[in-house]
């Protein structure tokens, strides 16, 4: 498969006219995964229509709060103290994104983080479409063991030097995206492009002793109380890995998600799935970005043999849910 893709990627092709004219390969490091977390570093590799690098840019950002998991990204409070605020780099960042498709690994996460930062800065990121390299690797049917960036990099022989450093992660992704893009062009594959809508509301944790600010700030963890309607379809059983979701399947979520949890649940409900608040032997599927965690749902999923997928895979499955049989 790799030889086929390498040949396709290096051979002359008639380039699809519908493909974008330029890309911005992006990686952001953050204080965490929740909706009130902040960007602490950002990198952009600008690529032309065929994936060739034009230039790159990197900056650290002062998040005005604790930097979060320093053991992952290596950016301490001391390092970030003198860094520019997001509003100070927003214009330069926007110039790098302008008129290009945003490309990222699990792109919805990077887009949501970027969109929230621009919302806080009372502005909008000039991005209209995004492309997730996880989704593209699935379209190309790459034989990857998982959806991690390191697996995609290894598949194309790209060497990672500093994992979880925004500039190196963006470089690695740009180098892996180029052959992916060319293989897609050679095979006439339709790129998995998604619309990027600016955020008009967001949440944030007020600092100690302060009230929530204007523009939609709310304490982290705030969620409106609401009751979902009962699922109208019977449970058809467990999800079969590699197959399709079916209306009526019981889906549970565990841990942080890059898309708002309520939005994921709404999308699942609209697709005809039963969103379950707990996990039991009747649960069809567990969605989690951290399958090695020790949460009660993950532990029970192991005990019951419940299939587990990550958020990106679930998003793809939601696009093709099998209808419940009539009658």
- The N- to C-terminal Cα distance equals 44 Å
Structural class: alpha/beta
- Approximate strand percentage: 15-25%
Overall, the morphology is globular
Count up the helices: 11
Q: Give the strand tally.
A: 10
Spatial strand arrangement across the major sheet? 3-2-1-4-5-6
Radius of gyration: 21 Å
> What's the overall average pLDDT, rounded?
85
Name the poorly predicted regions.
Answer: 1-9, 206-226
* Helix and strand element order: HEEEHHHEHEHHHEEHEEHEH
Largest sheet properties: 6 strands, mixed
Q: Percentage of helical residues?
A: 25-40%
Question: What does this protein look like?
Answer:
The protein is α/β, with parallel strands linked by helices and 327 residues long. The chain is 33% helix and 16% strand. Strands 3-2-1-4-5-6 form a six-stranded mixed beta sheet, with helices on both faces. It has a four-stranded parallel beta sheet with strand order 8-7-9-10, sandwiched between helices. Helix 1 crosses helix 8 (166-187). It is globular, with a radius of gyration of 21 Å. It starts with a helix and ends in a 9-residue tail after the last helix. The relative contact order is 0.13. Mean pLDDT is 85; it is low at 1-9 and 206-226.
Q: Helix and strand layout, with pairings?
A:
Elements: H1 2-10, E1 22-30, E2 39-48, E3 53-60, H2 70-73, H3 77-81, H4 86-97, E4 101-104, H5 107-120, E5 129-132, H6 133-139, H7 149-155, H8 166-187, E6 193-195, E7 250-254, H9 261-270, E8 274-276, E9 285-288, H10 296-304, E10 308-309, H11 311-318
Parallel strand pairs: 1-4, 4-5, 7-8, 7-9, 9-10
Antiparallel strand pairs: 1-2, 2-3, 5-6
Helix pairs in contact: 1-8, 6-8, 7-8
């Amino acid at each position: 498969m790799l030889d086929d893709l390498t040949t396709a990627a290096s051979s002359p092709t008639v380039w699809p006219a519908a493909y974008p004219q330029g890309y911005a390969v992006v990686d952001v490091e953050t204080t965490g995964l929740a909706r009130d977390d902040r960007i602490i570093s950002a990198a952009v590799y600008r690529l032309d229509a065929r994936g060739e690098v034009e230039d790159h840019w990197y900056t650290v950002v002062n998040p005005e709060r604790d930097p979060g998991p320093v053991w992952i990204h290596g950016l301490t409070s001391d390092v970030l103290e003198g860094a520019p605020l997001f509003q100070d780099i927003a214009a330069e960042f926007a110039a790098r994104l302008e008129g290009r498709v945003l490309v990222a690994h699990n792109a919805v996460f990077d887009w949501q983080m970027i969109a929230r930062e621009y919302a806080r800065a009372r502005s909008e990121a000039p991005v209209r479409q995004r492309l997730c390299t996880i989704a593209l690797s699935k379209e190309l049917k790459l034989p990857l063991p998982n959806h991690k960036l390191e697996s995609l990099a290894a598949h194309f022989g790209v060497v990672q030097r500093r994992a979880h450093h925004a500039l190196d992660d963006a470089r690695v992704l740009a180098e892996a995206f180029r052959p992916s893009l060319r293989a897609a062009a050679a095979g006439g594959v339709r790129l998995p492009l998604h619309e990027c809508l600016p955020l008009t509301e967001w949440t944030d944790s007020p600092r100690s002793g302060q009230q929530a600010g204007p523009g939609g700030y709310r304490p982290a963890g705030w969620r409106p109380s609401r009751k979902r309607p009962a699922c109208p379809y019977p449970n058809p059983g467990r999800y079969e890995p590699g197959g399709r979701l079916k209306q009526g399947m019981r889906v549970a979520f565990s841990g942080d998600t890059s898309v708002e949890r309520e939005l994921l649940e709404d999308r699942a409900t609209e697709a005809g799935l039963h969103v379950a608040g707990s996990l039991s032997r009747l649960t069809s599927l567990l969605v989690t970005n951290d399958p090695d965690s020790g949460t009660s749902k993950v532990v029970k999923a192991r005990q019951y043999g419940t299939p587990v997928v990550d958020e990106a895979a679930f998003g793809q499955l939601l696009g093709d849910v099998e209808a419940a049989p009539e009658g």
